[in-house]
Amino acid sequence: MALRFHWMLPKAGEVVPGASQTPQEALRYRADSTTEGSTAPRPDLTGWTHFARVAEHAGIESVLISFSRYEPDPLVVSSALGCATKKLTFMLAFRAGLTQPAAFVQQLNTLSCMLGGRVSLNLVAGSSLAEQRGYGDFLAHDDRYARAEEFLTICEQFWRNGGEADFRGNFYCVEKGKVHTPYNTNGSANGSRGPEIYISGHSEPALRLATEHGSCWLRVADTPEAIAPGVARMREAGISVGLRLCIIARATHDEAVRAAESLVPRDDGGGQAASVKLKDDSLMHRQAATNGSGWISANLWTGLVPFYGPVWTTLAGTPRELADTFLAWRDAGVEQFILSGWPELDTVEMFGRDVLPLIREGEACR
Amino acid sequence: MPLRFHWMFPKGGEVGMKTAQETSRVLTTKETSPASMPDMAGWTTFARAAEEAGIESALLSFSRYEPDTILVACAVGMATTKLKTIVAYRSGLIQPATFVQQINTLSTLIQGRLAINVVAGSSAAEQRGYGDYLEHDERYARAAEFLAICRSFWCANGNGRGVDFDGRYYRLEAGKIFTPYVGGGRSGPEIYVSGHSDAARGLAMTQASCWLRLIDTPENLRSQVATFREAGREVCLRLCVVSRPTSEEALQAALALLPDESIGREERAILQRSDSRTLHDALAAADDRGWLGEHLWAGLVPYYGSSAITLVGTPDELADAFMAYGEIGITQFIIAGWPKLDEMVRFGRDVLPLVRLREGS
Fold first, then answer.
1. Is there a contact between B98 and A114 if contact means CB atoms under 8 Å apart?
2. What's the average model confidence in pLDDT over A148-159?
3. Pairing of strands B296-297, B310-313
C-alpha cells in the first residue's frame, strides 16, 4: 500500500494568502498561540481554505485539526471548511469524556453526511490535568484511558449495529440507544464500520487502546530501530502505524541543518520549557523531557522538543534524504505520517513538489 | 420593540413534501424517514425564503431522529447572510465547557447569528438512550448548573479569573475557553428555555433571556407573562398558522390537515409515554375542546404533536391575534405551517405587513 500523508491544519491566522512568512515568524506564531492576545483561537476560513486547497493539490490526504481550549472546536470548523473543499479528509482530534458517546456519534454522523464521509478521528485522552479540570474532568491518566475504551466501545456499537447501542460500564450506561442519522461511508477507507480511528500516546493504556479500538496508532517520530518494538506489536494486531513529525527540506544537507538550528529560541528565559512541563500528565511529554535534545540520526532532530514538546521532532535534509527516510520508515512497517513545517503553506507545497514524487518513485521500485 | 417572528426549521426532506400528512412526527421517527439525513439543498431554499419573508431566526430541533443541530446551523449559516438560527440542545449530553467551545466557534463563523434553546429532555426513554438516567426535575436542576456555567464562560471566562464551579452535577476548576463568542455586541447568545412545568419555568426565570412555551389564549397566559416580564425576561410562543383570504377557506384548509387515524393513534401513544408537562397540557387541550379560542385550534395535536396548536384565520384576523399577544407582553413567536415553505411565504407576504402596519399606528 502506498504511504499515506496527512498534515496539521495550521493555527487560525497562521496562513495569510499572498503574504510571505519566515520560518522563525511561523514558529513564533504557533508557539504563542496559547497565550493571551493570540488570534489563533478565532476561526480563519480564508487562510484555512487557501491552505486546504494547496494541501489537496500537494497530494495530502487529510488535515488533522487539534483539540485544546486554545483553539476553535474541530467538529464545527470541519463543518465550515468541508463545504469549501472536495477531496480532503478531516481528521478530528477529540477528547473522550467531554461528550456522551451517543451525542458525539450524532455529531460525527451528521458531519460525515455533509462531507461525504471525509472524516476520521484522532482520540486523545488529554495531556494536562489543569486543562482537563477546566473542562470538568477530574479523572487520573489511566482512568481516562479506561473511560476512552468504554467511549469507543459504545461508538463502535452505534456504527456497526445500524445506529443502535446498549451498554453498561463504569463510566457510561446506554439503554436502547439509537442515533437515526447514519455514518456516511462515501470515500471512507473503512467500509461501513464508521470512521478510521487514530489513537495517539506512548503509555501502555494508549497502546492497548490502539490495538483494541484503533485503525492506526500514532506516535512521535523516532529512528526505525527505536520504534521497532511498538510497530511490531501493532502490525501483529493488524493496526496501522503513523508518525507525527515536522519537516525541513533545503537544497543541501548543511542548509537544512542550519535552517533547523536557526529555529531554536535564543532569549526564551525558560518560558516555553515551563509551558511544556504543564503537560504533566502525558508519558510522551515526560519521555521527551528526559531524552535530551540533538541529532538522533543524520536527519532526525529533537532540538525544539525541550521548548515546544515531542511533536516538534523534526526531519531535516535534502528532498532526497527526506524521501529516503520516509522509505526507511516504510520498510520498518510505518504506513502513515502527519506532518507540519514552518511555514505550513510553503512546506506543504514543497513537500508535494519535491519530496512526494521521490517517495512514489521509491515505492514503485521496492 | 417590534414583535419578533421565527420559524421552525424544516426536517430533512420536508421542503420537498407537498402535504401536511407526509410531515407528521410519527412518520419522521420511522427508520425510512429522510428526516435523519442532512438536506442542504432543501435547507438552503428554505433559509433564503425565510430571509425574504422577514423571518428573524429558524429553530433547529434536537432529537435522536435528526442530524446534530450545531453542525447543521454552521452549514446553513455559511449559506446565508441574515437568517439566525436558534440551536436546540440537551444540556445533559455534553460538558458545558465543550458546549461553549462549540457555540463560540459557531458564532465566529456565522457572525453571531445564533441563539440557543436549552432543553432538559422530553422522554425518559430517549434520554437513557443518550446515557442520561436523571428524572424530570433533576434534569432541570442539572440544566440550571449547566447554564450557570455557560453564562460564566460567556462573562469573559469568569471575569478573567477562569470559571470555577462546584455543584451537584458539574465541577470545574479554572475553566477557560479561548475562542470568544462573537456577535452583535452580546457577550453570549440569547438563551431560550422551554417547558410548562414549575421546574422549567424556574429555569427560564433564573437562567434564560426568554421563556418559550406553547401558545394558549391571551387570558390564560396574561398573569404568567406578566411575571416573566417583570423579571426582565421575554416570552416567546410556539404555534402553527393557517392563513387564507377568507375565514371559511382558512377553516377548510385547517380541517384538510387532519391525517388518517392510525397516525393519530401512534402520536397519542408517544404523547402519553412522555414525562413532559408541556406535552400533557397540549394533549388535554386537544381532548377538551379542540377550539381554545375563536381562532386557536388544538385539533391537530394528536396528529402532529404538542406544538401543533394552530392560529387559523384571515391575514387580518391573524394580525389582530398577534397584536393581542403583544399587548399582554409577548414579544416573540416561533411558527410552523404546512407545507412549511408555502405557509411561511404566505405569512411573510400577507400577515407580517399587517402586523407592522398595526405596530406603526
1. no
2. 96
3. antiparallel
